[in-house]
Design brief:
This protein is mainly alpha-helical. The chain has one domain. It is 55% helix and 8% strand. The chain contains eight helices and four strands. The strands form two sheets. The chain has a two-stranded antiparallel sheet. Helix 3 runs antiparallel to helix 4. The longest helix is centred in the C-terminal third of the chain and has 21 residues. The N and C termini lie far apart (46 Å).
């Protein structure tokens, strides 16, 4: 569907709820980290090759420490469908007419939570953060495995 949205306006309209959340996450995290968002757009724009850009957010000041959190912020959207499902399933499990609207709004979140190729390239400005996170995982992994009692699983535990 996401590939079709890049070529077809109708498919792009079906993803508008997901595109809104995707760009909103960039905007909010950029605002919180001082990246200074300067513009945002949800209007699909045609590229010279015929494909569409579904939305965009521009920033005035993305630094090395804010690039990855801002660029990868849409990954947090994956929690939205699960939260809605948990609330929806807390009561009766009978189908309600408004479930159609809910599905139309929630389904695009699964498709739009993945960062774009531009987002991934921008996140590489934060390579020191990735290096630090990798070192922390390498250092704390044995302690976490031991504290959770997972030694019997024998997952890549350094000896």
């Amino acid at each position: 569907m996401r590939l079709l949205a890049g070529k077809n306006r109708f498919c792009a309209l079906l993803l508008i709820a997901g595109t809104f959340m995707h760009e909103l996450m960039h905007f909010v995290v950029g605002l919180m980290l001082g990246a200074r968002p300067v513009s945002a757009s949800l209007i699909p724009k045609r590229r010279p090759d015929g494909s569409f850009v579904l939305g965009s957010v521009s920033f005035a000041s993305i630094r090395w420490y804010s690039a990855a959190p801002v660029a990868l912020a849409p990954l947090a959207i994956i929690t939205v469908p699960f939260l809605v499902a948990s609330v929806r399933c807390a009561g009766t499990l009978a189908f309600q007419p408004w479930d159609l609207l809910l599905a139309f709004l929630i389904a695009p979140q699964f498709l739009c939570c993945w960062p774009s190729s531009t987002d991934w390239r921008l996140s590489m400005k934060s390579w020191p953060l990735f290096l630090l996170a990798g070192a922390a995982v390498w250092y704390f992994y044995p302690y976490v495995v031991h504290s959770l009692g997972l030694e019997r699983i024998r997952l890549l535990i350094p000896h």
